[in-house]
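User: Here's a chain of 273 residues. Predict its fold as tokens.
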Amino acid sequence: MEKTYNMARNQLGFSLAEVLTALTIGAIVLIAVLEIYTRAQRSASAITGRLDNFRLPCEVLQRIAEDLDKIITPGSDTKVTVENKLDARGYQTARLQILKTIYDGENRPQTFEEIIWQSTYTYDSDADGLVLYRSHTGIASEDKLLDKSRADWENTYSFVPICTGVTFFKMQVPADGNFLDQWTESSLPRGIVVTISFAEPFKTPMGTLEVPDDGKITRTIAIDRTRKINFEIVKKEYEGEPNDQLNQQDEEEQAEQEEQQDANVPDVERGQG
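Assistant: Prediction complete.
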């Protein structure tokens, strides 16, 4: 009886080889799970980073479009000026001025509202690249776009920094199939093509800084979307007159119907006839 009890006690334990095997298998499974988790986390971080990089440029372009839509109205005396240049460090910079003028009782021009978007390199800034500024001045002191989000110290400054780290900022005016870098005409342009980028720049052989095309975000903003668009209706050319074609089609359909009727008449009836 005692021998049987000792044998049962010995069968309840695990050998050293079994313990080592179990630990090895567990470690392999744990390493595999951690590898899958790391890859998933890297993929999620990469996707989130791309979305963040795309969200900021789109937000800036949307605010520029809102300024153009709110100030430029049909029949108003508004002027748009576009300028582009390369700064001393080789960055592509641009400046957009939207000036709305009204006239007082003595027929003197008064600046009702002026908005300026411009990118400038700031030497005392810790961030690399350009700083994008926006200015709002004029009789219409209320800034519907940024007043709610401005800090107290920003209320005393006309130019407010919107974002930093801009590596490419350009504005062009489409005209007659070309893109103009400068626009100083008194008339309004049909649209403005704005391009912005926060991608890492590289130095060209000319000494300027450029960014890859896939790192640029471009938006075409229409000016005065309520303008009348003249549509031209092109008359479709026919070989003959429409009435002649209809008569010809009727004759062809009548001939086909007679042929079908003759084909359906039995031979006996044809002989009797």
